[in-house]
Amino acid sequence: MTPESIARLSAGIRDVPDFPKPGILFKDITPVLAHPELWDIAISALIETAGDTRIDKVVGIDARGFIFGAAVADRLKAGFIPIRKKGKLPYQTFEKAYTLEYGEEVIQVHQDAIAEGENVLLVDDLLATGGTAAAAAELIDQLGGNLVGLAFLIELTFLKGRDNLPASVPLHSILSY
Q1: Tens digits of per-residue pLDDT, 51-66?
Q2: Phi, psi (deg, nearest 5) at residue 59
Q3: Which of these, 163, 135, 153, lies nearest to 68 by C-alpha position?
Q4: CA 107, CA 87: separation in Å to the nearest integer?
Q5: What's the pLDDT tens digit per position in 123-170?
Q6: Is 64 a catalytic residue?
Q7: Is 25 exposed, middle or buried (0-12, 13-18, 19+ CB in 10 A)?
Q8: Is 24 strand, coil or helix?
């Protein structure tokens, strides 16, 4: 990606003050979704994070990770695996609980979603504290997947979420705030 493309992508992220609660500056990705050129830049940048590594499956985290992950999987000719909030998947699942600042959440994945040794790229729109992505990484490991990369459109660096993710796995953020 060129610096000009990344600058255009960054300009497409809308800041929404005091959402979802006072004191939070929300990074809204919906303008990127609505603009075909920005959408292409975002997906192309996420794909570039894989380099020359063969990707068998792309994991997207509920819910905006589905949007980006499915598009990345399509372009990479890889399978797409949704990791969802508890109770949303219809088949046998593995689950992982993780802590939020206001409580606990549980995510799940189908038990047959990833075969032993498959190369997996985890894609999400935002890396904040890293709790959800760390739980997703543990589920990928539990299934026997080989997590080869973590790709985020946006990283809120001041929250130090990357400190909670496996240091041995390459982590790429397209935009950092």
Answers
A1: 999 999 999 999 999 9
A2: -100, 130
A3: 153
A4: 9
A5: 999 999 999 999 999 999 999 999 999 999 999 999 999 999 999 999
A6: yes
A7: exposed
A8: coil
Instruction: Assess contact for 100 and 120: CB atoms under 8 A.
Output: no
Nearest to 105 by CA among 166, 61, 143, 146: 61
**61 in Cβ contact with 80 (< 8 Å):** no
Catalytic position from the list 37, 84, 101, 162: 101
Q: pTM for this structure?
A: 0.96
Exactly one of 64, 95, 138, 162 is catalytic; which is it? Answer: 64
Q: Identify the residue whose tokens are 């660096």.
A: 157
> What are the residues facing 99 on neighbouring strands?
104
Whether the per-residue pLDDT at 42 is higher than 80: the answer is: yes
HSE-up of 101 (CA within 13 Å, CB side)?
A: 4
Residue 45 pLDDT: 98
Task: Quote the pLDDT of residue 159.
Answer: 95
User: What residues contact 134, with CB distance under 8 A and at least 6 apart?
Assistant: 98, 164, 165, 166
